[in-house]
Amino acid sequence: MSVMKNFLNVILILCVCLNWRFTEGAEKKESGKADSYTFQVSFLFPSSSTCVLSSKAPNTKSSIRVVHMHGTCSHLRSNKDASLDHDEILRCDQARVESIRSKLSKKNNADGISMIKSTELQATIGKTLGSANYIVTVGIGTPKHDLSLVFDTGSDLTWTQCQPCLGSCYSQKEPIFNPSSSSSYHNVSCSSPICKTGACSASNCVYGILYGDNSFTRGFLSKEKITLTNSDVLDDVYFGCGEYNKGLFFRTAGILGLGRGKFSLPSQATTTYNNIFSYCLPSSPSNTGHLTFGSAGISNSVKFTPISSFPSPSSYGINIVGISVGDKELEITPASFSTKGAIIDSGTVITRLPTKVYAELRRVFKEKMSSYKATSGRSIFDTCYDFTGVDTMTIPKIAFSLGGGTVVELGRMGILYPLTQSQVCLAFAGEDDLPAIFGNVQQKTLEIVYDVAGGRIGFASNGCS
């Protein structure tokens, strides 16, 4: 009798355990908590012949299209861009990182404007600003002159090349802006309180920006009308009218500054947009994204994390407290980022992590990808795979845990960097002596909201489509 009772107890325990495992699995499946992406390898290599427009661009008057400057959707694209020069992109990306390192190592003007001497300019010919991946088109002047500008969260002052190029101008795709043909153009007087550079030319305020990678622009600090869309026009915006510019700016006309300083476009348009803007970077160079000013159209699913003033009050600092790869939480602590901090930057391509953190991420990722053929690295990449002959692939999801309890799950195009089908690499790199940088590959397809007035940055999935 006791034997039968014990046997029944064992059966009961097994049933309870099986039911618990089944319920747990069902709940996990039902809640959509999959820890990997499965998709066709061809998804990494979309057609370069057709431009696919974002299906989720906010239907607001203050939303403008974002395109990859070397992609199918860009009118700046040249024949040589038909096949992306990844080595050049990665080289320029490293220049961008060095620019950030230099910027944070010096006590720069908080507004991003400084005076540069002509002797310094002579030594900077031929240098690059960085990757300059994503561009927007805005109108400047009256009548408006449409110009393609790199949109950059790491810059404050918006500037464009201007005629006459008294020093020199680099080659750009569109005609150079002529301020004498605009009825709304005004130079800023040297007597204006806004003129802090202490440099003047014929009583007009002169600005100068020397970037950390030694590109530069110099000209007149001016006020002008900027047209975002036909129904959304900003009057008397401070901008730089550059008559002496050097650097490889990839045929763009200048920079659209989205930084935290008072000369950035969001800061100047605070009364109109409450110092809020958002964007979604497209999944590939063959797709479009969007840049939107103001709070209209922001998704209800956006989760926010506080903006940190560490490592620099001029950067968009974020507090990274954890990283997961698939179902594995990396063995790191918030202290891993405490020395140098972390920032989010629209102009850096590949996310940089402290070397110890990157080593742990790489180790876990390689464990999850052990069924695929590894291949040699390239440039800053040391973890690459050969997917030749592979139709469908499965990769672990990667998520960042940020301050305030916000978890940012990267999109499936935010994990790998496809060079060729025989060389697809983990899109992260390890680097010390600078803050961790949440780069634009990892930002792809996310809706990212900069509520500067509220001191927070928000994230949501599927921001472009």
Short description:
The chain is built from 7 helices and 29 strands.
Structural write-up:
By secondary structure, this protein is of the alpha+beta class. The chain folds into two domains: 170 residues, Cathepsin D, subunit A, domain 1, CATH 2.40.70; 231 residues, Cathepsin D, subunit A, domain 1. It is 17% helix and 31% strand. The protein is built from seven helices and 29 strands. A six-stranded mixed barrel has the order 3-4-11-5-10-9. Strands 16-15-22-23 form a four-stranded antiparallel β-sheet, covered by helices on one side. A hairpin with a 5-residue loop joins strand 8 and strand 9. It starts with a helix and ends in a 5-residue tail after the last strand. About 8% of the residues have low confidence.
* Amount of helix: 10-25%
Biggest sheet character: 6 strands, mixed, barrel
CATH topology of the largest domain: Cathepsin D, subunit A, domain 1
Strand order of the largest sheet: 3-4-11-5-10-9
Shape: globular
End-to-end separation in angstroms reads 66 Å
Which CATH class of the largest domain applies here?
Answer: Mainly Beta
Number of domains: 2
Q: How many distinct beta strands?
A: 29
The average pLDDT is 86
**Name given to the CATH homologous superfamily of the largest domain:** Acid Proteases
Low-confidence stretches: 10-32, 115-128
Q: Which secondary-structure class do the elements indicate?
A: alpha+beta
The number of distinct helices, counting runs of at least 4 residues, comes to 7
Question: At CATH's second level, what is the architecture of the largest domain?
Answer: Beta Barrel
Rg over CA atoms: 25 Å
Please, what is the oligomeric state? single chain
- Measured by DSSP, the beta-strand proportion falls in 25-35%
